[in-house]
Amino acid sequence: MEIVKGYSGVRMYLNIYCLSFPQELDNPFKTLVTISNDSDSYDVLADRFEGGQRLLLPPEAADNIIYRLLNNQSLTISVGRYCSEIIPEGFAKSLFKI
Questions:
Q1: SS3 track for 23-84
Q2: Residue 36 pLDDT more than 90?
């Protein structure tokens, strides 16, 4: 997970280097991402960059992830065969540096 802050606001990317993120059958420029924690789960469609190793999450999903991590909640992000747990330890300190 990578967070970038610029003139257009905060953008959150998912990067993977050993696999390619899967593409949606009806839109090769999108990928389904599942974001979950102990109490709930939801899906979003992320923009898939050329090569399939980088995704841009929608702003609402990025805001939700940031909110949960700042509130000390762990998350799991799943995309195709790829799954990663995001823990909040040190997140607030790192976020405020950008």
A1: CCCCCCCEEEEEEECCCCEEEEEEEECCCCCEEECCHHHHHHHHHHHHCCCCEEEEECCEEE
A2: yes
